[in-house]
Write a structure and sequence with these properties.
By secondary structure, this protein is mainly alpha-helical. It is 74% helix and 0% strand. It has eight helices and no strands. The chain is elongated.
């Protein structure tokens, strides 16, 4: 689904999507790690109560994966340029070459996120062993 949104976008659109994703990631990181309101709100029945139940290693791993997801619109833009830009891109538009660069394929992007989550778990497991 994310590929359908970010495929065929212009540079400015890709940059805006990336900045929005990175901004949300930084806002959640700031709230989780630095917010005084979060530290003293266990009995306020707020969002912070739920976030206190999430272990630090899991939150940090999700934030790293989220930050990497912010690069996907830019990677899709670069993949579009590599696939459809220039003389080789014109030949690809005529379906002579239908290969998309690996970094612009949604399956590989999803695999990167899964690998980050697995590595985060393994680091936590090794540290607590």
């Amino acid at each position: 689904m994310f590929d359908q949104i970010t495929d065929g976008v212009h540079f400015v659109t890709a940059l805006i999507l990336s900045v929005i994703i990175w901004g949300l990631c930084l806002a959640v990181a700031w709230f989780y790690h630095f917010s005084e309101a979060r530290r003293y709100s266990w009995h306020n029945n707020s969002l912070a109560d739920f976030m206190d139940l999430i272990p630090n290693w899991l939150m940090n791993t999700v934030l790293v994966a989220w930050f990497i997801v912010g690069t996907f619109p830019m990677l899709n833009y670069v993949a579009d340029k590599a696939q459809f830009g220039g003389v080789v891109g014109r030949a690809r538009e005529l379906n002579m070459f239908d290969d998309r660069p690996w970094y612009g394929v949604g399956g590989y992007q999803f695999l990167i996120v899964v690998v980050i989550l697995i590595v985060g778990y393994l680091i936590n497991w090794y540290r607590n062993k």
